[in-house]
Amino acid sequence: AKVNGRNQASFYDRSMSRDLVRRREIEAELRVAVQRDELSIFFQPIVDLATGRIKAFEALVRWFHPEKGELRPDEFIPVAEETGAIITLGNWITAQAAKAAATWPEDITVAVNLSPLQIKAPGAALGILNALREAKLDPRRLELEITETVLLDHSQQTEDFIAELSAAGVRFALDDFGTGYSSLGYLNKYPFGKIKVDRSFVSGPNAGKKSDAIIRAVSGMATTLDMAIVAEGLETVEQVEAVKAAGCTLGQGYYFSRAVPDYLAAMLIAQEREK
Ligand code: C2E
Ligand code: CA
Ligand code: CA
Ligand code: CA
């Protein structure tokens, strides 16, 4: 058993160091990825479930690495958060998203994901307002998606950040609703215009009658509070019908479209507006 234990330990050591090596590589390469033009922003439509029309696009970052291939944000965003690179990266993402949105019709907004660290950086709100000014995008056309984790520590910085941008017209959405504490207090305290119900309520092992009932309750509350409710991760027509019946007004997912590069987003808009 002793020998076995040792073998096992060295197996874990090896796989752990492989992960660590990859992390270190990502960490080092991320610093130059923007300059090398390896990163780009893709856009996934958010659709009005009643009319089928595109109301917004969510900006999702992609990294096309010359050797590693496409890296998912779930892999490199946490590294960028750890090293602090997320501040520069985040500002770049907001600027790119704002630039793209400025070319769309005025009734289409752009949603950008924010990391907790980004919000707490000094001058965070200013960085976003600068990006908007440079892109000449009306602040009301930017929506910032934040998760509950951001609000957990009740920090003054977060409050000021939200208050300052909200006063400028920027909108806020509560992302991944249902995965964290889902304290309803947040909904009262902060000016969220939208709640995004996490994909796990729509598909996967935990979706079903129970999650339908939860969506129904949340959407009832959202309507009362004058908030829109978005269902994420819609892949099938059955899921679309189910969330619609449960009261969701907006939807997002592969059923409508994956995230696409800016020129394809522009094509999706053009196609729709022709009708
Ligand atoms: P998220 O904000 O919850 O974004 C939605 C994720 O679900 C995206 O993954 C999207 O491609 C994926 N998705 C959309 N529809 C479907 C569907 O029908 N089925 C399935 N299976 N998945 C669907 P992605 O782009 O890999 O992003 C993962 C996470 O990484 C995001 O989750 C967000 O938390 C983070 N992220 C992405 N881009 C950014 C960014 O620019 N900044 C920051 N801070 N985080 C980002
Ligand atoms: Ca999001
Ligand atoms: Ca989400
Ligand atoms: Ca997520």
From TrEMBL:
<feature type="domain" description="EAL">
    <location>
        <begin position="23"/>
        <end position="273"/>
    </location>
</feature>
<protein>
    <submittedName>
        <fullName>EAL domain-containing protein</fullName>
    </submittedName>
</protein>
